[in-house]
């Protein structure tokens, strides 16, 4: 365990991170390593670049280089219960028992989920069931879950707070899968009082590590706005497709609550600290967002100013599963976790 002079020792020793080689997972791994945690990552590498020499995820190699600390990696799919169980048991022998799981592993495209819904349910829902089974077998009953604002469905009011109904009017299988997993965790915590789960409902993560060595660069066509804009800016794609300009918003394009990836990763550390503090039990959801909505065209303009280059775009039909606007009230996370987003849209566009 690394030490930072007189800094207090982290409240837990070993954190297992599912999907830790992905965009949000890898940035959170950097924070965990910087915080002195022992980190074990499992990832099936379906959405990351492998290093040619080591066959390890490039994102995790860079996370270790950035922090000067080592982690343990296993190329395991969470649906493979036997392989996942072996990881928990190996962690017990090589370092010490896993204390908490940060669960990121999931497919995450709204539009793709409408095309292949069963794949999303198999990976996101059945995969979590397999993970919970293995955690229970190994007496690990603490988890921080990577959820989504899509559990709120079509907003009945804005801004969205944690009291807003979930599961009503979910517009796509991705959001439904996240809602189903939250319901599973609620039932689990109700049935077994030893379980503690914090569900972090993300809004729209964007940006990159300040070093420029970690960020979001999808292997296929980007499903999220920022990486698509970035690929247009560098000439990899001729123009941005803006899906819909007839929404009831200020300029007709969809409005979202964009949050910098560094702020989001920091939210996981605050949740992890809260997990092991006194008085926490059961299932607790928290919104992670800035509380401000920006339209697609506002983001395009901000990115154009950041890179000094006009971003060409064309208007396309609405995508199935999209909604007009979504932004949050994150005051509960500030009160309970001591967390609040710090970076604005300009800073989000600075590094991609």
Automatic annotation (TrEMBL):
Protein name: UDP-glucose 4-epimerase
InterPro entries, per the entry: NAD(P)-bd_dom, NAD(P)-bd_dom_sf, UDP_G4E
A GO MF term: UDP-glucose 4-epimerase activity
Record Gene3D superfamilies: NAD(P)-binding Rossmann-like Domain, UDP-galactose 4-epimerase, domain 1
Pfam families documented for this protein: GDP_Man_Dehyd (PF16363)
UniProt cofactor(s): NAD(+)
Higher taxonomy: Eukaryota, Metazoa, Ecdysozoa, Arthropoda, Hexapoda
Catalysed reactions, semicolon-separated: UDP-N-acetyl-alpha-D-glucosamine = UDP-N-acetyl-alpha-D-galactosamine; UDP-alpha-D-glucose = UDP-alpha-D-galactose
């Amino acid at each position: 365990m690394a030490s930072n002079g007189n800094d207090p020792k982290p409240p837990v020793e070993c954190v297992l991170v599912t999907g830790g080689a992905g965009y949000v997972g890898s940035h959170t791994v950097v924070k965990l390593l910087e915080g002195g945690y022992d980190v074990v990552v499992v990832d099936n590498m379906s959405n990351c670049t492998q290093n040619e020499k080591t066959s390890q995820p490039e994102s995790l190699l860079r996370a270790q280089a950035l922090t000067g600390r080592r982690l343990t990696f296993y190329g395991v799919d969470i649906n493979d219960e036997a392989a996942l169980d072996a990881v928990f048991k190996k962690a017990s022998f090589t370092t010490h028992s896993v204390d908490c799981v940060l669960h990121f592993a999931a497919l995450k495209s709204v539009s793709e989920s409408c095309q292949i819904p069963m794949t999303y349910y198999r990976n996101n829902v059945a995969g979590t069931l397999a993970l919970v089974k293995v955690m229970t077998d190994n007496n690990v009953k603490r988890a921080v879950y990577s959820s989504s604002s899509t559990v709120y469905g079509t907003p009945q009011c804005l801004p969205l707070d944690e009291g807003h109904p979930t599961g009503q009017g979910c517009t796509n299988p991705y959001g439904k899968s996240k809602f189903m997993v939250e319901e599973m965790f609620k039932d689990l915590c109700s049935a077994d009082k030893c379980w503690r789960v914090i569900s972090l409902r993300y809004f729209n993560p964007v940006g990159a590590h300040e070093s420029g060595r970690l960020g979001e660069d999808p292997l296929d066509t980007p499903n999220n706005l920022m990486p698509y804009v970035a690929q247009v800016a560098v000439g990899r794609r001729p123009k941005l497709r803006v899906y819909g300009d007839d929404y009831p918003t200020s300029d007709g394009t969809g409005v979202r609550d964009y949050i910098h990836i560094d702020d989001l990763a920091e939210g996981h550390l605050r949740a992890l600290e809260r997990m092991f503090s006194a008085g926490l039990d059961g299932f607790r959801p928290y919104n992670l967002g800035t509380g401000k909505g920006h339209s697609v065209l506002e983001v395009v303009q901000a990115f154009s100013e950041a890179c000094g280059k006009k971003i060409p775009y064309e208007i396309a039909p609405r995508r199935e599963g999209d909604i007009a606007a979504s932004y949050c009230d994150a005051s509960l996370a500030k009160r309970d976790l001591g967390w609040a987003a710090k970076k604005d849209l300009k800073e989000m566009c600075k590094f991609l």
